[in-house]
Amino acid sequence: MTRFQYRQQWKICSPSEEMTMKQQFARILRASAAAGAATALLGTAFALTAASSHAQSRTALLVYTALETDAMKQYKDGFEKANPTVEIRWVRDSTGVVTAKLLAEKNNPQADVVVGLAATSLALLGQEGMLLPYEPSGMKQLNPAYVDSARPPSWIGMDVWGATVCFNTIEAKKLNLPKPTSWADLAKPVYKGQIVMPHPASSGTGYLDVTAWLQMFGEAKGWQYMDALHQNIAQYTHSGSKPCTMAGTGEFPIGISFEFRGHQVKRSGAPVELIFPKEGLGWDVEASGIMKGTKNLAGAQKLVDWMSSKEANQISSNWWAIVAYPGIAKKVEGIPDDYEKLLIKPNDFNWSAKNRERILAEWGTRYNSKAEKK
């Protein structure tokens, strides 16, 4: 093969031809890269559009609550897993604050649903015509004692919480304080300045204490009892949990609180003993209800359906000794087996709701001088 033939067969290029081919090849590479980038951008845009479309397709429920923060995530995760098209957006505060906020918004309601608010507060909202009665799919499985008696009901119970005294044994020993066993004991002069309890206008726990004393002892003797107890109170806190937390840290030896927080503080290793006064315990029900005027009715009904389910009640049973769904409550450390029998009966939620404004006004006149500063 001649050199010419070799060059012809393999198309050997001159330097100028070789440069031209390199330029063409570079243009091809650039074009391919641009096409790839465009494809990637198109894919990203498609993914973002799909994600945006999915987000837009979810119903966002504005849910007012007084639930303990320990529990909120588990309820939200459980509900949204079962109902992926609905999203919970919480607004949380103490019972009294949430109740006042809802009443203030009566003519322009913002919340779709209320979850984990005291039944006495929901009864008040019902009396004000602010709730939409609804019978959830799982209602017939629940203990009727913890559901609104109207049909259809305005609220559905989740769990029961009741009064508990947290007693720091180490601090009490330092101060030579005897262990109280009754409400009457707490009014004795030996405990002067050693007790903290929740403010009933801020805390549902504080309000259930006050209404229980008025129902147990009668109104006249109930106020006499609170006059005597007031002499021993160091501070009225704006949280139902705080008195037990303060007892646990030793800031005060005695905190009137509720069993959930008492159990948590004791489990953390604090030297507290939980006391259940022998006269009986004030109590209330954490409950759910739909706000009248919600623009997300289908989603609101799904949430109340789920809150009435066995699954939701199993979450509640992680912390509460009494739940609305029978047969699934667990043994809670520090809570007596006969706890339910210690709850005062009857406990008239409708009376507590109807008389709330009057009771709080009287209480404030008598005792507000020791309220915690906000």
TrEMBL record:
<keyword id="KW-0732">Signal</keyword>
<dbReference type="GO" id="GO:0030288">
    <property type="term" value="C:outer membrane-bounded periplasmic space"/>
</dbReference>
<dbReference type="GO" id="GO:0030976">
    <property type="term" value="F:thiamine pyrophosphate binding"/>
</dbReference>
<dbReference type="InterPro" id="IPR026045">
    <property type="entry name" value="Ferric-bd"/>
</dbReference>
<dbReference type="InterPro" id="IPR017663">
    <property type="entry name" value="ABC_2-AEP-bd"/>
</dbReference>
<protein>
    <submittedName>
        <fullName>Ferric iron ABC transporter, iron-binding protein</fullName>
    </submittedName>
</protein>
<dbReference type="GO" id="GO:0015888">
    <property type="term" value="P:thiamine transport"/>
</dbReference>
<dbReference type="Pfam" id="PF13343">
    <property type="entry name" value="SBP_bac_6"/>
</dbReference>
<dbReference type="GO" id="GO:0030975">
    <property type="term" value="F:thiamine binding"/>
</dbReference>
